[in-house]
Design brief:
Layout: H1 3-6, E1 10-13, E2 19-22, E3 27-29, E4 36-38, E5 75-76, E6 79-87, E7 91-98, E8 103-110, H2 119-134, E9 144-150, E10 153-159, E11 163-165, H3 166-172, H4 177-196, E12 199-200, E13 209-212, E14 217-219, E15 226-227, H5 247-251, H6 257-273, H7 285-294, H8 309-318, H9 330-339, H10 350-384, H11 389-397, H12 399-409, H13 412-424, H14 428-432, E16 435-439, H15 447-457, H16 459-472, H17 476-497, H18 505-510, E17 512-516
Antiparallel strand pairs: 1-2, 3-4, 5-6, 6-7, 7-8, 8-10, 9-10, 11-13, 12-15, 13-14, 16-17
Length: 524
């Protein structure tokens, strides 16, 4: 472990709200309330990786026991507590019945060990969480209904999501790439809505993502949320879950929205590969700190071909050590994820592809005619303004040179079509026929792949231009060779399209596929 990290210690937050730096081992006494907490080294089942590090080690990984819980069957306000759903270091979440509206809610109650702090402090912490979460009216944010206190017990009522947490889902079974992209899109939309309301979540992790029975994500637990405008300026110690905490939060505590992006990147990596991006050893705090601040992201070799390379690049950018190297805002991030979103792979029919290709050729032909028309107009203009027959004869003699010039300009026509396809992932013909080019993951291919595909797709056009140039220059060997190659390529393409997946030779070479856009129907 580097000395640069050893002397700084870690950031610790007491349940009373006081934050301070401590060493990686031993105990810490809160300077505000005097509470003594154990932040000693952890091993095995006491790993701090998935735990908010205000939680004493001895209280980690405790499961709710209904028989020992005196609150079950009692009332808090107009909420009747029915069962414990989960237990954390600072709170317990119960299923409760809202008697006034006759609906079930999730009731978050501050745990007993927090009683050393004043009731006012606990209630204010819950109110801050409730205000942050209630300010967001978004389908992918869990709703907050009520916050209150009774007999010294502070509680918060929120939407009860009938499903499971993302953490539970990842433990039960892995996610497919389309599922990862879909959930990522929903989570980013929620974070973007939060940022628009000047709210930073502060503790992104699978435990705080709830999944409905329909598989939709809901962002919850805004206990560490803060105003976007206040972070990075007040010098307040940054808090969060060590396994997902950004390097700048460990080192300086100066965080902003990009720190949430880092946590999101770690979580998306875990969703994609079923494990965290770093080797945390046995989970001791200094090992976690070193991994986040200096460690390299470790992609599993056996899963190298299961996701697009562009997705790996997006994850690496999210987990950049420097905030400046991450995405500037959630709008930019959402656009990047959208480009990688899989498209339903319904292979386009031969008729629709042929019509699209014909439209593209027609467009290129029209451009060629326009160029020829401009050249002919220039010759006619020169001849019309000639003062004697000799000038007219000289102008007419320039026609062959005009033809050669047009042939020389001809390569720029398919080049323009290639540029269009590489930039927009389609061509005029494909857009009119509602077709799209995708890679084997169903996502829009990278630009370099589209460039290579475009060059190969228009190979016949390039050869026809070469054929015309050879004819004009009387280069007979080149003339016959180019004609033979054109014929051979047409035969190969025809045979390829007749195969079950209807993939042309350039699609096979580039790993792409032409599919129907969502909602489009085949012309076959």
């Amino acid at each position: 472990m580097g000395a640069a990290f050893e002397h700084e210690g870690i950031l610790f937050r007491c349940p009373c709200g006081r934050s301070q730096r401590v060493q990686q081992t031993g105990t810490v006494t809160c300077a505000k309330c005097g509470r003594v907490s154990d932040v000693g080294e952890t091993t095995g089942s006491q790993s701090l990786l998935d735990t908010f590090f205000e939680i004493p080690v001895a209280e980690l990984n405790q499961e709710p026991e209904a028989g020992d819980d005196p609150l079950i069957g009692t009332w808090l306000g107009h909420f009747r507590i029915e069962a414990a759903l989960g237990r954390g270091g600072a709170s317990v979440v119960y299923r409760a019945l809202d008697e006034s509206l006759q609906r079930h809610v999730a009731l978050k109650v501050i745990r007993g060990h927090a009683s050393e702090s004043t009731g006012e402090t606990r209630l204010e912490v819950l109110r801050e969480e409730a205000r942050a979460q209630a300010s967001l009216q978004h389908p992918h944010v869990a709703s907050v209904y009520y916050v209150g206190e009774q007999a010294g017990v502070s509680f918060l009522a929120m939407e009860l999501v009938s499903g499971e947490s993302l953490y539970e889902r990842l433990r039960r079974e892995p996610l497919s790439y389309p599922e990862v992209i879909e959930l990522a899109t929903q989570i980013i939309a929620a974070l973007q809505a939060a940022a628009a309301q000047d709210v930073m979540h502060g503790d992104l992790k699978p435990n705080n993502i709830l999944l409905t029975r329909n598989g939709e994500a809901k962002l919850s637990d805004f206990g560490l949320a803060r105003s976007v405008g206040s972070v990075g300026e007040t010098g307040e110690a940054a808090m969060g879950t060590p396994g997902y905490l950004a390097p700048e939060a460990w080192i300086s505590g100066q965080v902003d929205l990009r720190s949430d992006m880092y946590s999101l990147g770690v979580m998306l990596f875990e969703m994609t590969y079923g494990r965290k991006p770093y080797d945390f050893g046995d989970g001791r705090m200094e090992q976690v700190l070193h991994a986040h601040c200096r460690g390299d992201v470790q992609f599993p070799g056996e899963a190298s071909g299961l996701v697009p390379e562009a997705w790996k690049g997006l994850l690496l950018r999210l987990m950049s050590k420097s905030p400046e190297d991450r995405f500037g805002d959630y709008r930019e991030l959402a656009a990047a994820v959208c480009r990688l979103r899989p498209i339903p792979q319904t292979a386009a029919g031969m008729t629709s592809r042929a019509l699209a290709w014909g439209i593209d050729l027609l467009c290129m032909g029209l451009v060629a005619l326009m160029l020829g028309g401009v050249g002919l107009a220039l010759v006619t203009l020169l001849a019309g303004h000639a003062l004697d027959p000799r000038s007219v004869q000289l102008a007419i003699q320039q026609l062959p040179l005009l033809g050669l010039a047009l042939i020389g300009l001809a390569p720029f026509i398919p080049l323009s079509a290639s540029l269009w396809q590489a930039e927009f992932g389609s061509t005029p013909g494909k857009r009119l026929m509602q077709l799209r080019i995708v890679d084997r993951f169903g996502a829009v291919p990278e630009r370099r792949v589209l460039w290579r595909r475009s060059f190969l797709q228009f190979a016949v056009v390039w050869l026809l231009i070469l054929h015309g140039l050879a004819d004009a220059l009387r280069l007979l060997p080149l003339y016959y060779v180019s004609a033979a190659v054109v014929g051979l390529l047409l035969i190969i393409d025809a045979v390829s399209v007749l195969r079950p997946r209807r993939r042309t030779i350039h699609d096979q070479l580039c790993g792409t596929l032409v599919v129907l856009d969502a909602g489009a129907e085949s012309w076959n």
